[in-house]
Amino acid sequence: MTTDTPASVKMEAIVSLAKRRGFIFPSSEIYGGFGSTWDYGPVGVELKRNVKDAWWRSMVRQRDDIVGLDAAILMSPSVWETSGHVASFSDPLVDCLSCKQRFREDELQQDACPTCGSSEGFTSARQFNLMFKTHVGPVEDEGALAYLRPETAQGIFVNFGNVLTATRRRLPFGIAQQGKAFRNEITPGNFIFRTREFEQMEIEFFVHPDTAAEWYTRWIEIREQWYVDLGLRAENLRRRVHPQEELSHYSAGTTDLEYRFPQGWAELEGIANRTDFDLKAHAEASGQRLSYFDQESGQHVVPYVIEPSAGADRALLAFLVDAYTVEPDENGNDRVVLKFHPRLAPYKVGVLPLSRKQPLVEMARNVWSRVRSHWATQYDDSQSIGRRYRRQDELGTPCCVTVDFDSLDDHAVTIRDRDDQAQERVRVEDLVDALRMRLEC
Ligand code: GAP
């Protein structure tokens, strides 16, 4: 038996399965691809939506202290000047003196060039700003300059006053946002782990300054538990506290949740104590009051902010790697199965008629329409039943419903479980309830 654990899962196996089964394709592939950008296919788009929905459900809908926001990607350039991104959102770059290849200085682990092996050395470091620039309107001059946002957080900070007025919230409360972010990364790679266009899921949680330390600890626990509740194995998760010299310009403390990706332990999500840095800076630069009136003390307070900042694509990659399993099938042959939590599985149910002949097809289609109104499903009638099980295993579908010739007489179908491959016969009238028991845990 060969059971792959995430540590032994090879990224190539994941990339190949992702393409073959329609999860993720290289972007612009017919033109040879486009540097570390990826497109989500029919299955991947369902998986990504499920990751984002699970986050929104737990972090917004099921809490009474967080509201949502969807701010524009293009914002006033003043936002990025004030936030410190124009001045400091940069990586130190060096060029190899021999082959001219460019590297991030902080990622070089040896004196020799990793590309050509030369020991001639490198140029001195220059700061390279990671924000993509563009121009708004018909004139491409400095006055029309705009940036593609490198984080969704600033859209939240500049709307703090609007949300406070519109919702009459009291501290502590949070604003959550999901959306695209862009960074001109120098060393993208490891599939969708680090890309130049990606999606973030961020919360800015505003608290009284006196309670910031307590909320910082609490948010690390909440976010860690979120991954575990969705099936990520606890042994593949760990915390890493940033040392002082590594902290971002706004942070009084940051802890990364790290996942054991195929390339090694790496950041999955960061939880930071951003203090009152952003609200104070925007208030000063804009001349607007960005504070909260505390009824108890009768004073205006600039809240501190605890920020759990996750990447939707990176979370998806962690769930994909963690779910990837190779183990024996019913016949003792290897099968690849994605053991997703049912909430994340792209399709919840596969409906598989044993034959393409009537009246079996009509019955199978009836069964399918019963199930389809409740969950994302797939109807698959091509090739042998064994092959179809394998296909659904590779998509991570938790339940397959087989309609066979006996179904015509006994009005029952077989549910086959993805993980233990056990089969259970249930009456068609009871099918939705039986599936609900398995899927809505
Ligand atoms: N607002 C704080 C912030 O943006 P960050 O640590 O730079 O903090 C937060 O980013 C999360 O966004 C990361 O933990 C990661 O999940 C995701 N992320 C950042 N850069 C990324 C990239 N180039 N590709 C994919 N995901 C990325």
List descriptors.
441 residues, alpha+beta, 7-stranded mixed beta sheet, 13 helices, globular, binds glycyl-adenosine-5'-phosphate
List how many beta strands DSSP finds.
23
Low-confidence stretches: none
Please give the share of residues in helix.
25-40%
**In terms of quaternary structure, what is this?**
single chain
- Look at the helices and sheets and give the structural class: alpha+beta
Tell me the radius of gyration: 25 Å
Instruction: Specify the biggest β-sheet.
Output: 7 strands, mixed
How are the SSEs ordered, and which strands pair?
Blueprint lengths: L10 H10 L3 E3 L11 E3 L1 H20 L4 E4 L7 H7 L1 H4 L1 E6 L6 E3 L21 E4 L3 E3 L9 E3 L5 H5 L2 H8 L5 E10 L14 E11 L4 H18 L7 E5 L11 E9 L2 E12 L1 H10 L5 E3 L4 E3 L2 E8 H12 E5 L5 E5 L10 E5 L6 H13 L4 E3 L5 H11 L3 E5 L3 H4 L1 E6 L5 E5 L3 H9 L2
Parallel strand pairs: 3-9, 19-20, 19-21
Antiparallel strand pairs: 1-2, 4-5, 4-6, 7-8, 9-10, 10-16, 11-12, 12-13, 13-16, 14-15, 17-18, 21-22, 22-23
Helix pairs in contact: 2-9, 3-8
The structure holds glycyl-adenosine-5'-phosphate.
The site of glycyl-adenosine-5'-phosphate has 18 residues, from strand 10, strand 13, strand 16 and helix 9.
Task: Please tell me about this protein's structure.
With 441 residues, the protein is an alpha+beta fold. Helix content is 30%, strand content 28%. It has a 7-stranded mixed β-sheet. Helix 3 (77-83) crosses helix 8. The chain starts with 10 loop residues before the first helix and ends with a helix. The mean pLDDT is 95. Glycyl-adenosine-5'-phosphate is lined by residues 151, 153, 183, 185, 194-195, 198, 200, 202, 267, 269-270, 307, 309-311, 313-314. Glycyl-adenosine-5'-phosphate binds at residues 151, 153, 183, 185, 194-195, 198, 200, 202, 267, 269-270, 307, 309-311, 313-314.
